[in-house]
Amino acid sequence: MSHKEDNEEKSRCHRTDLYASIPRTCLPIVYHPDYNITFMGLEKLHPFDAGKWGKVIRFLKEEQFINDGNLVEAREAAEEDLLVVHTKRYLNRLKWSLVVATITEIPPLLFLPNFLVQRKVLRPLRTQTGGTIMAGKLAVERGWAINVGGGFHHCSSDRGGGFCAYADITLAIKFLFERVEGISRVTIIDLDAHQGNGHERDFLDDRRVFIMDMYNRYIYPGDEYAKRAIKRKVELDWGTEDSEYLQKVELHMEGTLNEVLPDIIVYNAGTDILDGDPLGGLSISPQGIIKRDELVFRAAKRRGIPVLMVTSGGYQKKTARIIADSILNLHRQGLIEAFFPPCLDLSLKPRVFSD
Fold it and tell me: Histone deacetylase domain spans which residues (predicted)?
């Protein structure tokens, strides 16, 4: 994208509630109880634990790491926010229950009136999407931010799939490009077990975005067209275990960050790499996942790069505990203390638009 086009992009900013100021007393951890999907047991028809986000928060509260007073409450992404990336045609298609049933892989949804599907399924996903956008701004301001949900990396501007109805990663990056001075290069480190074909399709021809994607080569989505956007592609075999996995994470992540020093890292921290996951097909231990997250945050902090982390896939009941344990480990290691990245001048405030 040219400098002229970038300036034109900034001039088209709409009014949004997602970039409102957050009190300094809040940790940059974003969540809302509306993240969790519960409706007549239909959510159990997909292997995804549709209540894992609330369980992560409960575990963190039990460890007295967070409380209701220092959490950042996510806001639902409005239609105008979504239109920064999504086409009007795609959003209109989500008004058909059959389309949502296909995207979320919950067939019985097609029999429900769409107003219920909107309220019980899509609103939680829109709230998580809003949380990712909010966490992007927070990461720049605080040095790090974690959206306890989000990571819908199979959704692109005009199509969803794999339980991903909104392109929250693309949206967060587009918001940063449009609204935050000093953000001109972004690196996506996608370590979910599946290829992140959604953001790859969205940034296929965008040289501002460097994508590292490490995934099981044999599973969904196998999107060869989208793979053209990956600058550092790491394809794993069935049953890859901790030693090989962590070695590859460190090697390729260091190579990625040495090749291009970004203004922010968007880290898609899927836990579907866990041994026994019904969809991931890898064999990583809980300790391996915790170490993986530590490697990413340590590399970022060493270089003074802000990190936005989203939790993405993870299809076992125990993944919530692992996510919470990983966040606690990052805190113990001093990797999610408040630090300000020297590569950004934080006196250049984001342009905030709110109603």
Answer: 46-326
| Active-site residue, selected from the candidate residues 32, 86, 154, 252 | 154
Query: Residue 280: how many CA atoms within 13 Å on its side-chain side?
Result: 27
CB neighbour list of residue 1: distance below 8 Å, 6 or more residues apart: 9, 206, 207, 208
Task: Read off the tokens for 125.
Answer: 């996903």
Q: What digits encode the pLDDT tens for the residues 184-216?
A: 999 999 999 999 999 999 999 999 999 999 999
Query: Where do the domains of the chain lie, and which CATH numbers do they carry?
Result: 29-37+48-333 (3.40.800.20)
- 35-67: pLDDT as tens digits: 998 765 555 555 567 789 999 999 999 999 999
Question: 72 has which bridge partners?
Answer: 30
Helix (H, G, I), strand (E, B) or coil at 238: coil
Look up 194 and say whether it is catalytic: no
Q: How far apart are the first and last CA of the chain?
A: 30
Give the 3-state secondary structure of residue 276.
coil
Helices (H) and strands (E) in the chain, counts: 13, 8
